[in-house]
Specification:
Chain A: One of its GO terms (cellular component) is mitochondrial inner membrane. The complex is a heterodimer of chains A (about 350) and B (about 450). With about 350 residues, chain A is an all-alpha fold. Chain A has one domain. Helices cover about 70% and strands about 0% of the residues of chain A. Chain A contains 15 helices and no strands. In chain A, helix 4 packs antiparallel against helix 6 and helix 9 packs antiparallel against helix 13. The termini of chain A are far apart. In chain B, helix 3 runs antiparallel to helix 4, helix 5 runs antiparallel to helix 7 and helix 10 packs across helix 13. Chain B has a domain of about 200 residues. By secondary structure, chain B is mainly α. Helix content of chain B is about 70%, strand content about 0%. Classes of the chains: A mainly alpha (about 350), B mainly alpha (about 450). Chains A and B meet through helix 13 and helix 14 of A and helix 5, helix 6 and helix 7 of B.
Chain lengths: ~350, ~450
């Protein structure tokens, strides 16, 4: 895509999300979401393949449905409460609270509206998939964090629990890396939304760490354009350090101590236990192990089953590295080694 | 405690900056120096006053285990020298880095005061061990072994995290020093049963308990020698150590809840010892014997009498040294004939008489011969269990008999009898191997003269 066009489209995507995040009037929020959705469609179809067109169509249909539901909720709320601010949604109004949650979780790709996430992520290129799974989550989550006091906690907890389950079980049979990362996104969204009604700053913490880890994973996969587990097993030929980084990043994404990915899970379990949701905390923690299982499969095929000596049969021709990987090292360090910095959290409000 | 932790962390630059001729010398000598610095920890006053800071402390329970951990590091390094000979320099350094990071986590685990810090480090020990087993193991089954190891331990320990957080919220603090004063009895509704189970199951999987022991033979057999040593000697004891630390908050439920576990342990002891009699794989035999010995430790900890705690601690230390020595001996066999099958190398006493001495001593300590500390541990546990219920003597006595049977079976199978005809290139024992065995045996012999230091909290 020509650079000026790409710049305009990226700026529009940015503007859409920013508009959503800074507004307090529901109409402007909705407009921001729409600008965002419409401007990402050309990015999805950049590839000019039928698969990408299919992915873009699925994305457009689900997001448009969600936007329509959101519009319905906004107008309904305005009709019943007479105002358009986000902070004053009436939680006793069953229709408003239910359809609001449905619309926003559909935008985020949480169960039971998760079916588009793996297919859309698979149909587009790696970097576009990264944009989809990271930037596109910001706007709906910012809306949910603004209105978290009005959300029905039971429905949200149910959706979160189901997302963790589906994210774990769905990823088990996958070999395509983009689908694996899509199911990982579903599961992490579940963790984030579980704590929203109790303590939204933890949603922010989990989101930040998840964003860092997803950006790292996609960047490292993009270095060699690995899209399947099979091609990933050749990575040790090209760059053994990246295989080690994939090991550490995947273990952090799976939530193993002493890596940073453990921090959001630990604090979320703590907040859920403080609010007497012990069963939910235990079930979510055990279901996160399913996620860890398919990360372990990836780790096995990249770094833990290497040949004892280098062989020359599977070598790829070594060109000059063309793909830039900005900020990879600081991001890796931030997202795997900062668990000892967890007391910093007590300074946040 | 930093005087031990910081030198251990500094072993990382020692590894990466040593050249190829000096790396083994550097590593072994510096880890032996760290040993020397850890020895004063064993001088424990009886009033629990060895608190270094709010984060680290050491008392009569953790200092023998800490000593065992630091003692094992030079032994692991010495044992790994042969099978790492053919690897490239970077891979050798990576292997040693995994060992050092495991060591660092273990030292911090045994000296942590805050139980959540203990939990994080307890889980952190899984990652280097997993990498050692899966990356440097020798057979294809090592992949399965790594997965079983990781997931058995994690499924048990995630409820422990939730339980610890719940206890922290209800008690106010999980700092061990504070908990000794602030503990309350667990109330009796049925949810406390679940809380008790959540606290205990992680350590039961780690010990391992008989029904949950499936990961242990896989992991021990597939791991390289340093992995087997550290698994058998230290990582299993993490479970016992955790249970001993948590007994304060688990009262008075343990009197009722412990019954199924004690029964599983008593039956499991006999079952795993009997399996040892039918094993063809040498490392598998030693792995199952570990399950059997640890079952005694679980019985002791669940019985909660002063003598049983003394016996548990003594048995943990003794079993650590013995089991590690047996794995080193099995590895010396493996390096010569490249097979773990016992049948393939028999009558080794004719070829390697000094190694036969070490085999004899290891088997004798394994079957708890007086006056070694193995016997002291087992005797205290058996006496405590007899006083708890007279029927248990049948099981524990039978177990001692079967332990003697399989230890002697292992000894006679490998050492005595006519040698096999097809073995004709057994290299003589290296000095390194003899040093390794003597360094395992000497602490065992010397502790016989003063077992007070390994008797733990209730001496």
């Amino acid at each position: 895509m020509k650079l000026p066009i790409l710049t305009i489209i990226m700026t529009t995507i940015f503007t859409g999300t920013m508009l959503t995040m800074i507004s307090s009037h529901w109409l402007l929020i909705w407009i921001g979401l729409e600008i965002n959705m419409l401007s990402i469609i050309p990015i999805l179809t950049k590839n000019q393949k039928p698969r990408s067109t299919e992915a873009a169509t699925k994305y457009f249909l689900t997001q448009a449905t969600a936007s329509m539901l959101l519009m319905f909720t906004i107008v309904f709320n305005a009709m019943h409460s007479g105002q358009w601010t986000t902070t004053n949604i009436d939680p006793n109004n069953m229709i408003v609270s239910l359809t609001m949650i449905i619309a926003l979780t559909m935008k985020l790709g949480m169960t039971p509206f998760h079916f588009w996430v793996p297919e859309v992520t698979q149909g587009v290129s790696l970097m576009t998939g990264m944009l989809l799974l990271t930037w596109q989550k910001l706007a709906p989550i910012s809306i949910m964090m603004q209105m978290f006091t009005s959300i029905n906690p039971i429905i949200l907890l149910l959706i979160a629990l189901m997302s963790v389950l589906v994210g774990g079980w769905g990823g088990l049979n996958q070999t395509q890396l983009r689908k694996i990362l899509a199911y990982s996104s579903i599961a992490h969204m579940g963790w984030m939304m579980a704590i929203l009604t109790f303590c939204p700053s933890l949603t922010m913490l989990n989101l930040l760490i998840y964003l860092m880890l997803t950006i790292i994973m996609f960047t490292m996969l993009n270095m060699n354009t690995n899209m399947t587990t099979l091609t990933l097993s050749n990575l040790w030929n090209k760059s053994p350090t990246i295989t080690m980084m994939i090991l550490i990043s995947l273990l952090s994404l799976g939530g193993l101590p002493p890596l940073t990915g453990f921090l959001p899970k630990w604090i979320i379990i703590q907040e859920l236990t403080k609010n007497n949701n012990i069963a939910m905390a235990t079930v979510m923690a055990i279901m996160a192990l399913l996620n860890l299982y398919f990360y372990m499969r990836l780790i096995y095929s990249t770094s833990l089953t290497l040949f004892p000596t280098p062989n020359n049969i599977k070598m790829k021709w070594q060109f000059q590295p063309k793909k830039r990987s900005l900020f990879l090292s600081p991001l890796i360090i931030l997202s795997t080694l900062t668990l000892p910095l967890s007391p910093v959290l007590s300074t946040l409000n | 405690m930093l005087k031990i932790i910081i030198p251990t962390i500094m072993l990382f630059p020692v590894i990466w900056y040593s050249n190829s001729t000096m790396i083994w010398i550097n590593m072994t000598s510096y880890s032996l120096m760290i040993n020397l610095m850890t020895l004063p920890l064993l001088n424990q006053a009886g009033n629990n006053s060895n608190n270094f800071s709010l984060t680290f402390f050491s008392d009569s329970l953790s200092s023998p285990l800490l000593m065992l951990t630091v003692w094992l590091l030079p032994l692991m390094i010495m044992a790994s020298q042969h099978h790492l000979m053919k690897e490239s320099m970077t891979r050798k350094k990576l292997y040693l880095s995994m060992l050092i990071s495991l060591q660092m986590f273990l030292i911090m685990t045994f000296s942590a005061t805050e139980l959540i810090l203990f939990y994080i480090l307890f889980e952190a020990t899984l990652i280097p061990t997993l990498i050692i087993i899966t990356r440097w193991g020798n057979q294809t089954e090592r992949l399965n072994a790594g997965l079983y190891f990781l997931f058995y331990t994690l499924i048990g320990s995630l409820p422990l995290l939730v339980a610890l957080i719940y206890v922290q919220i209800s008690l106010g603090s999980l700092n061990y020093l504070v908990m000794n004063i602030w503990f309350q009895d667990m109330s009796s509704p049925w949810s406390s049963n679940l809380l008790w189970l959540a606290c205990i199951m992680a350590f039961m999987v780690k010990m391992p308990l008989y029904g949950l022991h499936l990961w242990l033979p896989k992991a021990h057999v597939e791991a390289p020698i340093a992995g087997s040593m550290v698994l058998a000697a230290v990582l299993l004891k993490l479970g016992g150590y955790g249970m001993l630390r948590l007994t304060i908050i688990l009262n008075p439920m343990t009197k009722i809840m412990a019954y199924p576990f004690i029964m599983l342990c008593l039956w499991g002891m006999i079952m795993t010892s009997s399996i040892c009699l039918r094993q063809t794989d040498l490392k598998s035999l030693i792995a199952y014997s570990s399950v059997s010995h640890m079952a005694l430790v679980i019985v002791a900890i669940l019985m909660q009498t002063p003598w049983s705690f003394m016996g548990a601690t003594a048995l943990m230390i003794a079993h650590g040294l013995t089991s590690s020595m047996l794995f080193c001996l099995a590895n010396s066999n493996y390096e010569r004939i490249h097979s773990r099958t016992m049948l393939l190398a028999r009558g080794l006493q004719a070829f390697l008489p000094l190694m036969a001495t070490w085999w004899l001593l290891a088997s004798l300590t394994n079957l708890a011969l007086p006056p070694f500390i193995n016997l002291i541990g087992e005797l205290f546990v058996i006496m405590a269990s007899f006083s708890w219920s007279s029927v248990t003597i049948a099981m524990t006595g039978l177990n001692m008999l079967i332990t003697a049977l399989y230890s002697l079976y292992m000894l006679t199978m490998t050492q005595r009898g006519k040698f096999t005809y097809h073995i004709h290139n057994i290299k003589p024992s290296y000095t390194r191997e003899n040093t390794l065995m003597s360094m395992h045996m000497l602490p065992l012999i010397m502790l016989t003269f003063n077992p007070k230091i390994i008797m733990g909290l209730t001496y």
